[in-house]
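Design request, tokens follow.
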């Protein structure tokens, strides 16, 4: 009717993804510029024939007309000259069909283009005549014989060190007793007991041989992230998220000192091996040095831009090495209280450091890779040959050169220290009643002898590992391949 408004309903338009639109655009371009799909531009037969003629003359021109009486020495000398021309032909082949056609326009099929002689490679000039004449293969269409190019391949053994065979490790004991995540561990220098700190705010001391609980220490009001046992005194040191660092007298089984100064949670601590100082690092991005006896802070090592989550000490410079969430590793001059050098090899947080007990090397664990460095200058040695693909929470190495790394997904990998080869990959199994997401290892440590490994996990358990005595090289063969850049086929 005139004057009336007709209501029209629009159909909803389905939104198209970017991938679908890209395929439509690609199909439209193919329809415009390539009507015959799957067909390539036909090659020029004349150019192909000229190129093949040149290659035949360059490769076999010196040997196709040799007499049978020619000596092997002459063959060797002529073939060395042929190597030079072979390098010339490889350079010419890079020019393409059209360029070769232009160069040979007006010449016969068998004509040879004069090209500048390229200098032979170093590996070619060093090959002896004996290695060249040692392998002879017949040429098709000719009764003569000429040296095989396989003789020119120099067989060089890999320079990467071959790993030492280690027996696999197995879990032989599971200890329960904590009511929260087990976050830290430390062994007694006498190797009779070890202590663990947990998110239940307690420190428990366990017997190494039997795994029985011997003592429980209470005093912290937050989870305990760091533990250290003194080799020079009967002291145990602990640090936690409550900003407190405590000294426990193991003769009286109580806390006798507290070190106040951190502005946030304390994530790691370490004892100097020769002098009575304690080093702690935390979320305030500072590594603090404490006098054990007087509770006074000797100095504050400031320079990191984020949480200091790992630290170890040495008797000689650099006496302090720290790893941080700012992805750097710093070497510190303890006397001057300043940074000696900074390592920036990692791209993600450096959560764990471990010093080799016998060598002047250490390893750092991060989510991007596990790297090995030398001391005292901190030269980068190599990465571990596999990728654990998890956040590395803890690393430990024993005197036999077995490196253990623990991830936040419950993965426990064992490596050969010398070569970086991973010879075993284990997975933590959560206890009944725990979530699968609690398959996380927060801390691990070898005992003093290096024959036992203890892991602290998020399912509130402590697991003990040792080598499988029944394993041999026949049951568990060493499957090792060096890195690609070190392989020689």
């Amino acid at each position: 009717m005139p004057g009336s408004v007709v209501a029209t309903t629009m159909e909803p338009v389905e939104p198209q993804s970017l991938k679908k639109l890209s395929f439509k655009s690609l199909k439209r371009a193919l329809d415009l510029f390539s009507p015959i799909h799957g067909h390539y531009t036909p090659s020029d037969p004349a150019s192909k024939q000229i190129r093949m003629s040149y290659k035949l003359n360059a490769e076999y021109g010196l040997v196709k007309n040799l007499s049978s009486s020619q000596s092997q020495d002459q063959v060797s000398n002529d073939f060395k000259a042929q190597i030079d021309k072979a390098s010339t032909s490889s350079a010419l082949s890079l020019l393409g069909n059209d360029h070769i056609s232009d160069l040979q326009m007006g010449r016969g099929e068998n004509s040879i283009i004069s090209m500048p002689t390229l200098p032979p490679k170093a590996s070619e000039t060093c090959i002896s005549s004996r290695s060249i004449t040692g392998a002879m293969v017949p040429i098709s269409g000719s009764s003569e014989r000429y040296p095989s190019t396989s003789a020119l391949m120099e067989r060089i053994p890999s320079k990467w060190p071959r790993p030492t065979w280690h027996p696999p490790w197995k879990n032989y004991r599971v200890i329960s007793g904590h009511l929260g995540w087990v976050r830290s561990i430390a062994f007694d220098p006498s190797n009779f007991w070890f202590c663990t700190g947990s998110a239940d705010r307690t420190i428990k001391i366990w017997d190494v041989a039997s795994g029985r609980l011997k003592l429980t220490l209470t005093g912290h009001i937050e989870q305990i992230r760091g533990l250290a046992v003194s080799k020079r005194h009967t002291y145990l040191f602990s640090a936690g998220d409550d900003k407190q660092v405590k000294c426990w007298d193991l003769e009286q089984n109580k806390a006798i000192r507290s070190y106040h100064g951190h502005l946030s949670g304390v994530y790691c601590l370490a004892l100097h091996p020769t002098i009575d100082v304690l080093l702690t690092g935390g979320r305030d991005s500072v590594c603090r040095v404490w006098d054990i006896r007087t509770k006074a802070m000797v100095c504050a090592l400031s320079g990191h831009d984020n949480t200091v989550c790992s630290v170890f000490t040495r008797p000689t410079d650099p006496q302090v090495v720290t790893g941080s969430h700012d992805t750097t590793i710093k070497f510190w001059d303890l006397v001057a209280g300043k940074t000696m050098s900074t390592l920036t090899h990692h791209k993600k947080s450096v959560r764990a450091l471990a010093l080799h007990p016998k060598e002047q090397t250490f390893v750092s664990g991060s989510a991007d890779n596990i790297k090995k460095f030398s001391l005292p200058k901190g030269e980068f040695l190599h990465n571990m040959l596999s990728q654990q693909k998890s956040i590395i929470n803890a690393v430990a190495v024993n005197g036999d050169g077995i490196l253990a790394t623990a991830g936040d997904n419950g993965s426990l990998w064992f490596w050969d220290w010398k070569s970086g080869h991973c010879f075993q990959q284990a997975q933590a199994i959560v206890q009944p009643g725990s979530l699968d997401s609690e398959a996380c290892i927060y801390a691990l440590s070898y005992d003093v002898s290096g024959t036992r490994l203890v892991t602290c996990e998020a399912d509130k358990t402590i697991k003990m590992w040792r080598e499988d005595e029944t394993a041999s090289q026949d049951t568990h063969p060493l499957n090792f391949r060096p890195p690609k850049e070190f392989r020689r086929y």
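Comment from the thread starter after seeing the answer: thanks! The longest strand covers residues 169-176.
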